[in-house]
Amino acid sequence: MDTRALGLTRGTLTRTRPPAPQDGDPDAELIARVGRADPAAVRTLVARKLPRVLALAARLLGDRNEAEDVAQEAFMRAWKQAPHWREGEARFDTWLHRVALNLCYDRLRAHRETLVDEIPDQADPGAAPDAELEARTRGEQVRAALAALPARQREALVLTYYQELSNLEAAGLMGISVDALESLLARARRSMRAQLGGAASKEMS
Fold this sequence. Notes:
This protein is mainly alpha-helical. The protein folds into two domains: 91 residues, Rna Polymerase Sigma Factor, Chain: A, CATH 1.10.1740.10; 68 residues, Orthogonal Bundle (Arc Repressor Mutant, subunit A). α2 crosses α4 and α5 crosses α8. The longest helix has 23 residues.
């Protein structure tokens, strides 16, 4: 399948809000249609899931280009899995998050190097107002502090804070107990507060 036709090429990614939680798997019917190679269903799935997968990968990897590569690979695996998907074995959203996480870990293990911040948007050549400069500086500090966390602490924080998953959902994705997740979160927040100090670290509380 040509990923360019699905809006997966760089520079064409847009953000949409995820659907509201529902009983059962809210994606079951859509995945069945994707499995039957329904083009409209494929486009709907991309619009529904891509922003969150991309955000997850970008936070974990700290690199927008690599995040887009991970998102594309995750969706290619989804296309292959869709014809064989059986409702009830797992929620599709959970499966897709797990695939994206594993792809991110593969890249982190391959690089064995310090994570870098996301490439910033093109800056205005003029001097930025004080408030804008302060917000930009704080954002860069938060990204740097997040990148410096151990991988499991960073994953726990990204899933619960940025992906807005419940502790139970995040623990399930990570294959750990809720108590273990909460321990990771506590250590991550302590590290963030130690690195950031001041008001910026309160965002992670």
